[in-house]
TrEMBL record:
Role of this protein: Specific class of high-redox-potential 4Fe-4S ferredoxins. Functions in anaerobic electron transport in most purple and in some other photosynthetic bacteria and in at least one genus (Paracoccus) of halophilic, denitrifying bacteria.
Pfam families documented for this protein: HIPIP
Gene3D superfamilies for this protein: High potential iron-sulphur protein (4.10.490.10)
Name of the protein in question: High-potential iron-sulfur protein
Family, similarity comment: Belongs to the high-potential iron-sulfur protein (HiPIP) family.
Transmembrane regions listed in the UniProt entry: none
GO biological process, one term: aerobic electron transport chain
Complexes and interactors: Homodimer.
InterPro entries given in the database record: High_potential_FeS_prot (IPR000170), HIPIP_sf (IPR036369), TAT_signal (IPR006311)
Amino acid sequence: MANQSRRHFIRTSIWGLATLPLGIGILSKTAFAQSLPRLDPSVPSAQALSYVEKASDASDHPAYTSGERCDNCMFYTSGNQGCQLFPENSVEPGGWCQSWVAQG
């Protein structure tokens, strides 16, 4: 009986240790995702794509169509207000850039 308890303990411990990196990875991505700094429209990468924090400010841009916003773009990630085009920053949900593409 003692051998079975020891085997069960070892098996459970090994399984727990094997899944630990996965759990840490998920938690750290979640923590990172929630702390993305807001994209500054004056940085070169934002300016290159004509990013504005308020979509209506882009009304004079030839690529802009009314109703286009970051939060309805395929590159937008609602969980962290992130954008695949600016992976180290969050964007204003009501913002816009010239790379806007309709979701889905």
